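Lab notes, practical 5.
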Amino acid sequence: MSWLQVQLETRADCADAAESALLEVGATAVTLQDNADQPLYAGDTPSETLWKQTRISGLFPASINVDSTLEHLRLSNAIDPDAIATLRAEILEDKDWEREWMQHYSPLQISDGFWLCPSWLTPPEPDSVNLMLDPGLAFGTGTHPTTRLCLEALTRYTPLQGDVVDFGCGSGILSVASLLLGASRVLATDTDPQALAATWANAERNHIDAGRLSALHPDALDGTEQADLVVANILMGPLCDLAPQLVSMLQRPTSTLLLSGVLEQQVAALQQAYPIPLQVADRREGWVVLIGQGGTERA
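Output from the prediction step:
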């Protein structure tokens, strides 16, 4: 059976209304996806539980009247005018969608001797450090600039036989990378249970000893957690709110803090939110990763 897919792009605060509009005109299913591979930090309010840029897809039987359906959506007061401008429709061929999805991913070299590899493919350099990841599990594939920046930074700053905290772990990609690169133990934390499950699954996929990883909801932390490296690849707002907690986790003056999920124009505001100096360590496509060290007060 052939299907028609109708897509639009909208802000997180308009996503619920757009989803309802698609269902009202006959969509049999509606899915919401990240429209920018944005790292996800699931908070307590609706604005924190969706990506800022959200792609919404409605699935319809191919027999519908396409022009009429699109016109109804264009006239809907429930959909933001900016989203209406992105409205488009396409016929989906009858094919093996799981196989189609898988073919879009290929091994990605992060640095010399360090590869990110989809779990169903053979690593191009078997003797290298190969992080085997299932991109379908959760919220991080390694292709977004912020994740790349963090992975590249981990090749430089992961403490050999040291402890790491991965705050907002998503798929666990940074947690597993740290362990493969020589960290002794990692504490991964995220508010979404699916993220914690995905972190465990990717750790098992990479044959990580269960004793080297803890994956907990932030509410389970007792405030005494400390590490040689703390990494957080989330969003600007949560990074500012978490400043006291993240800095308190730095174990010693030489401990390292890595922050990403930040655009270049947000750097100054983030620096002001932290009691320690933060410097831009690297840039990629308008995004940055910042580095700081524990125990050094800002002048």
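Observations recorded by the TA: Residues 145-157 form the longest helix (13 residues). The CA atoms of residues 3 and 63 lie 8 Å apart.
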